Structure formats: C-alpha cells, structure tokens
Request: fold
Amino acid sequence: MTNPIQFALAVTILLATPGPTNTLFLTAGATSGFKAMRLIPAEVLGYLTTIVIVGYFVGDLAQTAPGFAALLRIIVAGYLIVLAVRLWRAGLQASTEARLVTFRDVLITTMLNPKALVFAIGIIPVHAPHSLFYFAAFVVMVIMAGSGWALLGLGLTRGILPASGKPLVARLGAVVITGFAGYLVITAVLQTTA
Reply:
C-alpha cells in the first residue's frame, strides 16, 4: 500500500482494533500504571521483526499455502492460551503490585499477533523505494497506539475500578486473550476444511 493516506488509515484502524497486544497493554496500564510505557519498545520490536521476516522472506508462502497459514494460527493460539493461563493465575494472587505483563510477553505476543502478518503482507510496502518512510511512520503509530491502550487501562483503575480491581483486570485480560486464541483455532480449522 503506497498511498500515504490509505496507509495511515489502515495502520491506525488495525492498531486501534482490540487484539492480544492491546489487551496486554490495557492490562499492564491497569496493573502497573505509567510503568506500562516501558513495554512499548517490545511492541515496536515485535511488529518490526515479524514484518521484516514475513515481508522479505516468507510472505509468498503465507499467502499461497493455506496449510502454512493455518499452522501459524494454531501456534499463535497455543502461545496465547499459555499467556492467558499465566495472566489468570497472576490475577488470582494476593499481591496486585507484581508486574503481570513483561517485556517478553509483549514481544512474543506482538511477533505472533495476526495483525503483524496483515501489516507484512498487505499494508507495509516492504519492497517500495521509500519503504523506510513507511516503517518510520508505522513505528510512530505503534508508539501512539500502545500508549493509548496503556493509558486506557490506567484510566480504568483510576476512574472506574478501585485498587482491588487490578486482579479483576488481569483475569478479564486472560479471558479476552483466550477468546482470541479460540478465534484463531476456529479460523485455522475453517481455512483447512474450505
């Protein structure tokens, strides 16, 4: 996508859509406050890693081999289930001050996020002459989106939920991430049976 306006709209809409990474930022903002901003480099690195690998090396395979794409969805779903279980358990612990979302969680979740594949295959023109411009603009938009989701989580605990609601946010995050995992499994099965 080489039209800058279409590119900006597509990236903004996709980054604003709830997903596994955004759920982690919402949870981190609710449980860690402004410290959640430390996780933004993990999101940037995660997206860029997948975009470069898929965009330059395996993009054609992901587009033409439905079995490969389904396998990727199953792997991502498995990881999301493990992450959801960990968040759920952390939400059940008495201490709400523990950092529930780590740099590694955000990095791996973002690398495996289906949005990263969409960015790599359909939105970021990795082979365009001015691809560095698109990458730079993408990084700025990722920083803004991650910050926005973290601040939304912070606002939830400051404005709506009492401090005792932090474990609830972690458990809700686990449920949402499990839902994304289920969606990925269903789409993988439907893709291979179609």
Remarks:
- DSSP finds eight helices and no strands in the chain.
